[in-house]
Amino acid sequence: MPEDYKPWTWKPPEGFSALDHTSSRQDAHDKVSGQAVYTRDLDFPGMLYAKILTSPYAHAKIVSMDTSKAEALTGVRDILKYNDPDIVFENSTGGYCSSQYNILTLPGTSDFFQQPMGVVVVADSEEICDRALRLIVIEWEERPFILDMEESLQPDAPKIMPDIVRLNPSAKDPNIVQTNTTEIGDIQKGFAEADKIIEYTITRAPNTTAGVEAMACVVQWRGDFLDIWPHHTAHVEPMLSNPSLPSIGLSFVSLGYGSIQADIKSPPKDRKDPLPPICEANKISVTMPYQGAWYGGIAWLGYSTAFIRMAAILAKRAQNRPVKLVYDESNFYLTGDDAAIYRCKVGAKRDGTITACDWHVVGPFGELHIDKTHESTKIPNLRNTQEWALINQGHHICFRHGSQCCVPHNIMFDHVAAEFGLDPTEVALKNDGCREHDWDWITRYQKENGFPQRQSLREVIKLGKEAIHWDKKWHAPGARKLPNGRMHGLGFVHINEWSWISGRQFACLILRDGKLTIIGMRADHGMDTESAFRHSVATEAGLRYEDIVVQQQRSDANTYRFWVPGGSMGISQNTPQLVSAARELKRKIIDYAVRPASGVPMMPGLQSGSGQSMFPGKKADELDVKEGYVFEKANPINRRSVREVASAFWGDDPAIIHPTVPALSGLTLNGKPHPQMYIMSRQAHFMEVEVDVETGEVMVTNLVCVNDVGHLFNRRGAEAQQYGGAIMGLGRSATEEKIYCPKTGVGLNFNNIGYNIGTMNDYPEIKCIINESHLGYSSYGACGVGEDTGASLSGITAGAVYNATGKWVLDYPVTPDKVLKALGKI
Amino acid sequence: MSEKEKKTNEGERKEGFGHISRREFLRDAGLVIGGSTMGSIAFASETEAQQQVKESDVAKDPCSEESADITTIELTVNGGKYGFRVEPHWSLRQLLRDEIGLTSPKDWCGGHGACGSCTVIMNGRPVLSCLTLACECDGAIIETAEGIAKAKHPIIQSYIKWNAFQCGYCTPGFVTTAKALLDRNPDPTEADVRDALAGNLCRCGTYQQHPPAVLEAAEALKRK
Ligand code: FES
Ligand code: FES
Fold first, then answer.
1. Ligand found nearest the CA of B112
2. CA-CA distance, A556 to B152, in Å (whole number)?
3. With an 8 Å Cβ cutoff, are A526 and B17 in contact?
4. CA B211, CA B201: separation in Å to the nearest integer?
């Protein structure tokens, strides 16, 4: 750990308090008035529209395609087919991600229902595109499909994607993507030490982002120059300028994702390497409009990259007219969170101490299933066996990432508590720790590394239990029937927070009017990290919050950008560098104030240009900056506004700029937790339900979310992440799932009517409680909040239903039919 | 399944997987043409443009796809008067976005009437502009979030203050629905607000902040 760079030991400036509910977001008026322009809203003169065919089959190859009728349709400008030389060449460089195979720009074979593929039409309007697509006659060869991963793992399973480019050299035929086992400690010894071994199976159906703005991308060429307005969560320029590497992988490497770097070391053998770039990096200009939420999802990135690549190809053929490539709402169901089967075996002692946990997971995403349990407990013996196979369901990787870890983690605590008749909050505390270390060891670590000596889990559990009156309400499973005939239940989940530190380059400029601009590209998905950025820079530099803006939406040639453009952990990732920059800026403002100013006064009344210092005879250490004024500490009425100071140096514009701030070292090392860093902040969530045993309905009557955010920058923003995350988590836990027809592989509920997202009336008011332990690794000890709340709550319903009825329903989402089945009613 | 099957997809995209036309959807669902109702609120009076169209009326309907007629309509949008020649299948959302250039009527659900993000106020009540045919809007008075902001209605400030948005994509739909509620019920309860907004989806999960924002706007209106 670098000794000289420990942002958690930094103290916030005197008087620093979190933003309150009256500090306006910079995007507020745009969004509330409907004037915010999203990628889908863009409309340029001469713009053409493009749409891609989506596959009507779960797995089928195009044998032939007749586009003559579509070509004859008035208003159709171009039709690009999967076998066009332009696209065959580009197909080998389509976006990909850790789905372990190449996502082609325009494949001729569909691997799942509604996959974008086959043909793209360019026309004068979206409507004409739709009509033209319907006129295209396609001869299909249907292929066998598999929807179930366990079926796909069988040695005699049909090879379901023979044409794809596999990126993982260890992948085995026919359909296996990855198999691995991670063992920590000695699992057999752990089971031998247990008083009881508990076994159970958890199943999760696939769910999806159900994002709100369907993908769109506008592209225009100006000769050799390329202008892009994407709907995207990553940085675009490297993907188009260096196709010799898998494009999205490159982007992630440039962002520091070590795990994906590993994939890149084995590029597919048939890649024509090196390929010429679509455009050189210094000729690409990206403008990032507002983005309707889509919550990341690594699998998304491959598609949106392929999408941008496609738009660039089409625009080139459109002879410099802007082309808007749009997708319909079916793209919300392309990717999502993982379906998985977890076969779990847990060894525990009577007092709730867990001695071993062993998970056999059939599902995507490697050993991450056990990572958070390892990071947030002292359990000494853990094993995770992973089997991941191809299925014809699109790419389920993750979005609002982490639920694949949180669900088995919390169900384990519920089971141990149930087995020994214990309170699950006590079982959680009993096992609290970090990577096999108990809390005494962590306390010593805290002391040695400048952290406060606190146990976050104890604090968040106490706050949550008090808020929900846990001790009064907790009861044995199935023991409390309410006067209305329903069964009362309590649920509890807990986990660590997740944030890694990295940071990128961005610029902070003080302009001649004394206002400050932070420049750095980031896709705006609404998490409002900007307010925290503005607040921390304002307070550290001595400026006013309202005098600072983030200009985030344009990036030329890949220059300035914030870490994690998709939104994850934005505050904890970026504030260390912003604070460093702000401190440097403050020093510079004072330096300018004492320096003799030369030149001509820019405005009447400004006493600059005299060749004199604004604070004659004063030294830098005698001055300070607050609220936009430089003042003499010993005589505060002797003051000048930052505007006056900046204006005096009128020859420079921007007047003051921060220097390069070094990137922080990561909390991760090659995709693994850094061996010397322990994630000490925790969150705990508490839910009260009523279960109707006649209908199986589970009504949430009370929800309390407690997050230890380490240090709070923006109360309003943190709470928004808590309740927004909670609503998504509850959806994943109880209502949301993608349903496929087992006979055809076609999605049956891929729309907002069939896919069940909760409404205003489906959930009670959520009590959001913030704890500040200062145990995070970011500035002042801050850590993340939003992503982990959505992930951790995605398993809460099963525990609450068990407490209400005494029956386990471990098949997510926990829908009424499953509850009735568990009750033996159907 | 291993046997090679050959099929053509002509027509299938139209019939098979939800790609039915708006006209067909409206007819099949027997929905109100010219202003589909939002949430669970029932409205006492219907304007001329909100008549239920029966199956037998479709042929006579100027908005019918069978009719090649271009209809001329006049309408008021955010206080400005407009005249348009509209094609029979155009939705009100299309007209507001493509012809007038407004951005607030959004599309989340693909025009299936399932999300509320396209909500505008038509003749005083919230309607889903994706399911409202433009040719039925002759004489209509339309308000969008842009107009509500321009008129400095307190709902805008109170939404900003209460942070009743994240990505903001669904927000104009909430703002219009909430404003329509306040127009007809200046003193709503929290339950009234929740009921009125229950037809609007928000993927960012901002639900919690809407009731206090709307109730505060109601207070501000009373003070005016
Ligand atoms: S776009 Fe109109 S209701 Fe969804
Ligand atoms: S604010 Fe993003 S969908 Fe509602």
1. 1
2. 37
3. no
4. 14
- Per residue in B143-202, pLDDT (tens digit) is 999 999 999 999 999 999 999 999 999 999 999 999 999 999 999 999 999 999 999 999
Chain A: closest CA distance from residue B177 (Å): 13
DSSP A762: T
Sheet architecture: strand order including A340-348: A176-184, A382-389, A354-362, A340-348, A196-204, A811-812
Contacts of B146 in chain A (CB under 8 A): 33-35
- Tell whether the torsion through CA atoms of A571, A576, A580 and A581 is positive or negative: negative
CA–CA distance, A96 with A15 (Å, rounded to integer): 47
Domain residue spans in chain B?
A: 3-62, 102-132+140-222
Domain ranges of chain A: 7-35+502-657, 402-500+674-822
**In a 10 Å sphere around its CB, with 0-12 CB exposed, 13-18 middle and 19+ buried, how is residue A447 labelled?**
exposed
Residue A624 burial (CB count, 10 A) = 16
Q: Which residue of chain B has the CA closest to A31?
A: B168
pLDDT 10s digits, A638-653: 999 999 888 876 666 5
CATH of domain A402-500+674-822: 3.30.365.10
- Measured at the CA of A607, the angle between CA A603 and CA A609, to 5 degrees, comes to 85
pLDDT digits (tens, 9 = 90+) for A474-514: 999 999 999 999 999 999 999 998 766 666 667 788 887 88
Pocket of ligand 2 (CB under 6 A): A 212, 293, 526; B 165-171, 202-204, 206
According to DSSP, the residues that pair with A387 across neighbouring strands are: A179, A362
Whole-Å CA distances, A252 to A98, A236, A275, A788, A815: 11, 11, 20, 21, 37
Q: In Å, what is the CA distance from A117 to each residue of A55, A56, A87, A555?
A: 7, 10, 11, 30
Q: At what angle do helices B190-197 and B210-223 cross, to 10 degrees?
A: 120
Residue A53 has pLDDT above 80, yes or no: yes
At CA A494, angle to CA A492 and CA A499, rounded to 5?
Answer: 150
Tokens (6 digits) for A59: 């797995």
The predicted model scores a pTM of: 0.89
Residue whose Cα lies nearest atom 4 of ligand 2: it is B202
A7-35+502-657 architecture in CATH? Answer: 2-Layer Sandwich (3.30)
Domain B102-132+140-222: state its class: mainly alpha
